[in-house]
Please model this.
Amino acid sequence: MVMLVTRNLSVMLGHRRILDGIDLDFAPGALIGVVGPNGAGKSTLVRALTGLIAYSGSIALDGCEASTIARRERARATAYLPQGQTLHWPLTVDRLVQLGRLPHLGPLSRIVDVDRAAIERAMVRADVLTLRDRIATELSGGERARAMLARALAVEAPILIADEPLAALDPLHQFEVMELLAAEAAAGRTVIAVLHDLAMAARYCSRIVMIEHGRVVADDRPVAVLGSQRLAAVYGIRAEMDWRGDVPRLALLGRLQDPG
Ligand SMILES: Nc1ncnc2c1ncn2[C@@H]1O[C@H](COP(=O)(O)OP(=O)(O)OP(=O)(O)O)[C@@H](O)[C@H]1O
Model:
């Protein structure tokens, strides 16, 4: 099980400081929602965590500075589902999901039984088995998003980072993907998901990290982070949390200036 830790993590893009002094500990077995307004720095944070952009400060995987870990080893440790993925090649879904096994393949790049099994598991979990022979560039946005999720799941990495995994999904598949992410966490993985849907975050995440202007402004259980006052201050919206049994339900009621 892999522990992911950032200390004083900062990112400059152009001349702007986009992330500023982020200290976060990500332990296995948790589904952590990263939330915050547009432009807050959420994607920048997860891109730094996956090694895609330069940073200052430290990102450690099990105590080892991430930038010193070989690329393939790091790719085996951290699966990444990027935001709004564009596909450039007309691959079948089956071939696309196979790409998730690349960090595991030997010098001949041959898929072996253990890879085939991981690919099948990923396709079942992302509900794309019936799409396996379709050309991925010809899928609908939601179908393609699920195929890309299957590719990330096929890595079977201890850390899964998903940037807006619900975008483009219909409501049923949104629930299914959140159930799936929660199940991945329950199985002992560290799952970090950038989410705009605060109600889904409240319902499924074990912990919420809220980012505003490149800083962590809250980091706690959903009920502690997604209170009415904070959502008013950070998002400018009115919202109320209530409970159905022990499941928190967050209702978004409108803008602060709206009547009622
Ligand atoms: N290459 C770049 N050069 C300069 N600024 C950038 C660059 N890429 C992103 N930014 C800026 O960094 C800030 C944070 O962007 P980021 O994509 O991390 O935000 P986000 O919280 O994921 O937003 P959203 O919810 O809109 O996806 C934004 O103000 C964005 O304009």
